[in-house]
Structure to design on (238 residues):
């Protein structure tokens, strides 16, 4: 894909992995729509992108709400033209034994990590299939590796993996690639995931961002549908 000039929408763009991906795409010349709940974080990121000569649209929103998915896609198209790149990165975690997991805890994680992704991707598909595009699902090794006290999070990522795999088979003949990126331990402030005091061994958000850019450069005839990323010398099993 020609990244320069392509319209890209990144969720969870205010911090961590989403922020790193948005910056990397903007550096390559993509026109980026930034989606997250915190306007302040998005405006700071947009200012950084603009100062470096890029273009970014700020769209603060909670994608769990109503028709927000349709509105986000429409805003991206108005600002930057046909949507060609969708990065489903927004996610939440939370630690609790299953016996102590409340309905609210369960619903918050499944709504954010799965249902909101479904709605946004569905809203974006008419754009993506009208000329080709690339969908990135930022999942986790937790989708295939059970972790005690993270049942809701692991279940959400396992379901996301299946959603992505089904979608890939449905849209690849329309020129749309779907890639699941499943990192292990990443040095972010992401709530609910175990980490030690020394984070030097962990993956960095930039590692995932570089993977996204690299996958966009893969020739059209090749489709890498799932990539697992791990620390080279982990202090945990991830």
């Amino acid at each position: 894909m020609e990244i320069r000039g392509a319209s890209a929408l990144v969720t969870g763009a205010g911090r961590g992995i989403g922020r790193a991906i948005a910056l990397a795409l903007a550096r390559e010349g993509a026109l980026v729509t930034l989606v997250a709940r915190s306007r302040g974080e998005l405006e700071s990121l947009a200012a950084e992108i603009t100062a470096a000569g890029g273009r970014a649209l700020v769209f603060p929103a909670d994608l769990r709400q109503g028709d927000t998915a349709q509105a986000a896609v429409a805003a991206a198209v108005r600002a930057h033209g046909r949507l060609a790149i969708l990065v489903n990165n927004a996610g939440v975690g939370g630690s609790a034994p299953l016996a102590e997991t409340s309905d609210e805890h369960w619903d918050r994680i499944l709504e954010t990590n799965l249902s909101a992704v479904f709605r946004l991707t569905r809203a974006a598909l008419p754009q993506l299939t009208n000329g080709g595009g690339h969908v990135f699902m930022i999942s986790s090794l937790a989708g295939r590796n059970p972790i005690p006290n993270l049942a809701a999070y692991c279940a959400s990522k396992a379901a996301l993996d299946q959603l992505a795999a089904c979608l890939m088979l449905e849209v690849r003949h329309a020129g749309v690639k779907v890639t699941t990126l499943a990192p292990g331990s990443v040095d972010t402030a992401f709530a609910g995931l175990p980490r030690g005091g020394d984070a030097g061994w962990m993956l960095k958000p930039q590692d995932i961002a570089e993977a996204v850019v690299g996958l966009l450069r893969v020739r059209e005839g090749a489709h890498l549908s799932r990539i697992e990323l791990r620390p080279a010398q982990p202090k945990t099993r991830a």
